[in-house]
Amino acid sequence: MKELKHIGLFEGIGGFSFAARMVGWKTIAYCEINEFCKKILKHHFPNAKQHADIRQLEDRKSVV
User: Is 48 exposed, middle or buried (0-12, 13-18, 19+ CB in 10 A)?
Assistant: First the structure.
């Protein structure tokens, strides 16, 4: 079975990404502007690419 990958937008503290992990999805990137939330996400998803402002995401290549 192919591994499913997930990109979290407006991620907050990662509730959806935690649920995705429980069903076998891998969070490869997330976008969150709040500094406190970004620290929590970095702790729980250290290998995911971090983006701060969704308005700066221009294309698919810049996300992952």
Answer: buried
